[in-house]
Fold each of these.
Amino acid sequence: MKKRPPTDPRKRKGLIIVNTGEGKGKSTAAFGLAVRAAGHGMKVFIMQFMKGQWKAGERNSFARLSPYIEAVPMGDGFTWDTQNPEQDRATARKAFEIAKEKLMSGEYELVVLDEINYVLNYRFLPEDEVLETLKSKPAHVHVVCTGRNAPEKLIEMADLVTEMRIVKHPFGEQGIPAQKGIEF
Ligand code: ATP
Ligand code: MG
């Protein structure tokens, strides 16, 4: 066991956290932090980039943790159509503007930008702009960025970076279908 770090509530520092890598668990780890923060009565905002809707398990849990957790899928009210890159770029922009406003408001103590790394990989948003936004966020706000292939510059500026490494996945050679509560 690692030694526990000292705790001092006066030394509050909003962390930039990155969950990346090929293995499963990037988003669920971010949602785990959201649950932990909500347990302290901290306000959490979660924006899901890339995917249209939440999986049922997440959506229902977030609803139960309201008002501590507020979660918005990018597909909410916007059309997400991977056949149309222009439209996807516009959708990513709208989602980012909402997330940015929540982040900059300082009202949320934890902001999760789920799958933002995909948006950056696909160049749906300019990397520099997203990184600048993270740099200028209110000092007390923690931010989590998830998704494979986190940009190098994001990794450099982050305080906490974890790479999920696949050792086994049930979808692979084992051919086990998606399980309720694990995948959705
Ligand atoms: P989760 O949402 O379960 O935490 P994740 O955020 O790490 O997963 P994503 O890249 O967002 O992973 O992909 C989400 C979906 O893809 C999940 O259903 C997950 O099980 C599946 N997945 C993730 N990693 C792998 C993998 N290495 N092989 C096959 N499927 C995977
Ligand atoms: Mg994910």
Note: The domain at 16-164 is CATH 3.40.50.300 (Rossmann fold).
Amino acid sequence: MKALVVGGGIGGLAAAVAFHQRGWQVEVLERAPEITEIGAGLSIQPNGLRALDAIGLGEQVRTGGQAGPPRGIRGVNGAWLIRNDVEDLERRFGPWAIIHRAALVDILRAALPAHALRPGTTVRKVLPDGTVHHDGGTTTADLVIGADGVRSVTRRSIWPHAAGPRYVGYSTWRLLTASDGVEGSVETWGRGDRFGCVPMPDGRVYCYLMSNAPAGSRTGLDRLRERFAHWHDPIPALLDAARPDAVLQHDTYKLPNLRTFVHGKVAVLGDAAHAMAPNLGQGACQALEDAVTLAAAVDTLGIDAGLQDYDRLRRPRTQMVAQLSHRVAAPAHWNSPLATALRDAALPLLPSALLGRSITPTYSWTL
Ligand code: FAD
């Protein structure tokens, strides 16, 4: 049996590994000339690590990138708005990891035979019968997996009338910087701006910033330093230590829900199926869950029944996580001084059990 994977990102590579381990012939078509990832840190949460366990790679990521659970959310002056019980989170769900994106791609790629990877191959059209037209010709397969990201050609080919990506209203900057004094993963909320930092095992700190902005506008490091200059320590020092050429800015898009993730011999997964606002740090984790669930379902039940089972298992869950991800950070992007003052006064009063309950289904996934 042959699976053709469109897109060699984290979701596509994980799917290729999962099918390869089950004895399938796999081929990954990736438009980039090289299979790697740009970007900074990537937080892999307990559910994502369990998905990696299903393909034997969880331990490698855990040992290379131990990170504690998120400690909580602070206000601009440093006062805690929400403080997580990190020991309880770790006891209930297991460890969290932080890894450089390129390192995760290397781990996945190393689990595949070199001949399975076809970088420099752009897919132009995917048909429901398993035919894929690309700039190297036409290939057919028993199963086509569309893992080609938020602007997926697979999604557009199979569901031409489905709505496209929607800008969520804020842009994101990511950077790795050198610093001490960051003890754990913390996010800080202002008025329309957010700052998060996670220490990396190599001593650097992964920082992400999100600010309300019109789509397409560009803001450099100098302007970011000014904007966050009065925020609590060590935020100004982290930005001062950053190199301008190490800052990546991307506008943030999500995809409206699809009615199904499967059609004919084609399935979509990862961002192609359910690109979400990156507020829970779950996009890649969900792509990993998709990948191992798809391989298990199709390999066990056959293609038709397996695809139906994949859709049944994955669509409600990923759409729930996407909605939660969008909702949780909405108050960080409020612009009104009154609303944000009320928010800062009310959040510390919320019982931590309530907050813990809302995230439990996300972290507790198993295959
Ligand atoms: P992609 O990574 O987009 O991969 C798609 C691949 O398909 C690419 O390699 C692309 O080149 C290729 N491709 C596209 N079109 C074609 C074509 N026509 N032909 C051939 N190849 C094609 N998630 C987490 O779990 N934890 C985090 O901490 C986290 N932080 C994030 C922070 C930010 C700022 C953002 C924006 C996202 C974050 N995410 C996080 C989400 C995560 O990055 C994505 O959900 C994940 O990378 C999606 O993987 P994917 O393989 O589905 O898609």
Note: The first strand starts at residue 2 and ends at 6.
